[in-house]
Design a protein that fits this description.
Helices cover 37% and strands 31% of the residues. By secondary structure, it is of the alpha+beta class. It has a four-stranded antiparallel sheet. The longest helix is centred in the N-terminal third of the chain and has 14 residues, at 20-33. It has one domain (6-46, 53-95): Alpha-Beta Plaits, CATH 3.30.70.100. It is globular and about 45 Å long. Helix 1 (20-33) runs antiparallel to helix 3 (74-86). The protein contains three helices and four strands.
Length: 98
């Protein structure tokens, strides 16, 4: 039986465009280490219900555990501190069952 994949779903409003690239660079090693596959990275949105953020990201991992381990990794925690300084955001991890 295949293990369900894990997905990060992030909604982001970049508030400091000069600082945000530092987040991307700092997060890259964690994403590479845990096999992150970016399915959605920005793009045009169509807000149908509720509040929207300017940037939406969906990242696929081989499992929920890989998604959690990436988030909790030392590499990503360093990047998270930069992101929290440069952007307002929400991030959830969802188990895929498709």
């Amino acid at each position: 039986m295949l293990m369900p994949k894990g997905y990060w779903i992030a909604r982001v409003d970049v508030e400091n465009a000069d600082r945000y690239p530092d987040y991307v660079t700092t997060a890259k090693p964690a994403f590479e280490r845990y096999g992150a596959k970016f399915l959605v990275r920005g793009g045009e949105t169509h807000s149908l219900e509720g509040n929207n953020r300017a940037r939406n990201v969906v990242i696929e991992f081989a499992s929920v555990q890989d998604a959690m381990d990436c988030y909790n990794s030392e590499e990503y925690q360093a990047a998270k501190a930069i992101r929290q300084d440069a952007a307002a955001s929400e991030l959830i991890i969802v188990e895929g069952n498709a």
